[in-house]
Amino acid sequence: MMKRFLADYRYITILWFALAFVPVLLNVWIAGRFNNYLIFDGVFWHTIRQLPLYVAYPDEYFDTNHYGVLFSAVIAPFAILPKWLGCSLWIIANAGFLYWAVRQLPLSKKGIIVVLLIAAHDLYTAASMQQFNISVIGLLVGAFVFVERKQSHWATLLIVIGTLTKLYGIVGLAFFFFAQDKWRFVWSGLLWLGALFCLPMLYSSGEYVVQAYYDWYASLSEKNVSNLGTATYNLQNLSVLGFLQRTGIYNNNGVVILIGLLLLGLCFLKFKKYKDLDFRLLMLSAVSMFLCLFSTGTENSTYVVAYVGIGIWFAVSRLPQWLKVVLLVGAILGSLSPTDIFKPLKEGYIIRYSLRAVPVMLVWLAVIWEGFWGVGDTKEMRKI
Question: What does the alpha-carbon distance between residue 84 and residue 24 come to, in Å, rounded to a whole number?
């Protein structure tokens, strides 16, 4: 049965979009609960009216916006529709974009299906929260694909969109090292940055957009401070930073992030390995997981970003199969940890100590080890 599943795109496609549609049915159509989408929708309408983007609007939704003003252009096609319809299409469009991006990866059919399957549960988690994180990893994967195709002008477009909407996209600059058309990468990136910075000015004003970016920086700084809380049921900072802080092991985020960057950077210093496609894919995997592991803003719905990376790792890794399976089982248990399967442990241990990050961190360390000492040094081919 599993061999048949891994040999035909139809099964994973049905599963993938079913997992995206279920939240539409349950949360949007039946329960009418889609608060996060209302925040996104508000970014467009507040920009049109030139209202502050980073203050509370309790009459419209709970919580506050933390997305850049460019996000108003991204959400615009959905925001002009009735709320329920816009939200429904938003969820499906995000799932469809990530599906498209993964399908473009230079992997075998079996490898692509494995990536989608490993990420499927976290797709459902993110879709249930109407999260843009689904497209954040789609933008990152798409940028990698365009670099591989020597089309850096499209890669930089996706990187700039990701950067000016949620900042996470900036890690896509790491793919500059793999680009064979580096000058095009640089000049196209600068052109896209200028064009997309100015785009919201077409329906607001120059002064408003510039001020919005200043306010965005202040908003992200304040959010970073609030995410550092150690409250028992703090659903933010479910990262390795949160794990080290909440367990009392270490409490200097700057040092931990620096160590993470140094470990990742050591892999990128292995210039001779750049010619190995599996090595480049491993680095895409490492960058994806890095986003979740070293951010105080990581929550359960952010982990779709990491689990696409875990799927890519599993597809290309040349580690012993038993070790891969052990690490993957740990990661799957981590993916299931927010569910009622782990209800007795969820609030008191898993969330309180950010244990969600631990199995992903182990996979990330395996990727770093293999990237530095393994893949690219032998002629052994991937197993999937």
Answer: 9
- DSSP-based three-state secondary structure for 375: coil
Q: What residues contact 33, with CB distance under 8 A and at least 6 apart?
A: 27
For tokens 């929708």, the residue is 41
Say how far apart CA 92 and CA 130 lie, in whole Å: 10
Q: Is residue 261 within 8 Å of residue 287, measured between CB atoms? A: no
Dihedral of alpha carbons 309, 311, 317, 319, sign: positive
Q: Over the Cα atoms of the chain, what is R_g?
A: 20
**Residue 2 and residue 8: Cα distance in Å, rounded?**
10
Which pLDDT value is given to residue 382?
55
CB 306 within 8 A of CB 294: no
How many alpha carbons fall within 13 Å on the CB side of residue 31?
10
CB of 239 closer than 8 Å to CB of 294? yes
Q: Burial of 135 by CB count in 10 Å (0-12 exposed, 13-18 middle, 19+ buried)? A: buried
Residue type, 343: K
What pLDDT, on the 0 to 100 scale, is given for residue 102?
98
Whole-number Å distance between alpha carbons of 163 and 165: 6
Give the pLDDT of residue 380. Answer: 52
Q: Which residues of the chain have pLDDT under 50?
A: 230, 232-233, 378-379, 381
- pTM to 2 decimal places: 0.95
